[in-house]
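Annotated sample (chain length 259).
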Amino acid sequence: MTPDGDAFARRMFDLDDRVAIVTGASSGLGASVARALASLGARVAVVARRHDRLAGLAKEIDGLAVACDLSDPERAGSVVPAVAADLGPPEILVNAAGGMFTEERAEDEPLDAVRRTLDLNLVAPFLLAQAAFPHMRAVGRGAIVNVSSISGRVGIPGIPQASYAASKAGLSGLTAELAVQWARHSIRVNTVAPGFFRSEITGPLYESERAAAYLRRNTPLPKEGDADDIVGAVVWLAGDAGSYVTGQTIVVDGGWTAR
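Output written by the structure step:
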């Protein structure tokens, strides 16, 4: 690459002095995203329930640890003010926190589990985006990246997850609406929808040889996905490399949904 080309590439992914918030950062994808953003110069606040894990990561990346149970809407409202007071106005928000609270079939999902799933996977990202909006508007730019799932686009045989799928499909709808409403403020909103990769939620699938074989058989690319495959898409959308992309759901699934 020529010197000019090298400078251009660095500029496209340079996040120097931008404040970022990453939820679900105590492990897995959230932690990987936080490390990647920090390596590109961002000042990163990491958010999750488990403060002990957060503290180590925050020290590693010279960031800020904010312990919060995002499934509680009242507590979720405290995150952005805490970050703005300590690091400055957030320009990047990555909603990577998510979870499932039942493995029952749709006809048997308890209402409490449905509500908890929606609160964590859909309501919390909306509340955080609302709280970040005035800061991004004041700065004159912003990037919100929601982490969804291919479960929000296609049904997965043998894996009951009705409320989880509904919450993830809802993120794509929320993304499109916020993107259109906030475009005039140069705030971009996108979603990354991962396929299967090892995480706390999918761990049992990979421990079963039958299930692991099913995943391999249905993924066209001949490799097992991991968190780094998702991080690249998030980093692209968070910075200037994705400056003309908004309102989109980017699927990163090894070709699963292309079959």
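Annotation: Residues 19 and 88 are 7 Å apart (CA to CA).
Annotation: The mean pLDDT is 92.
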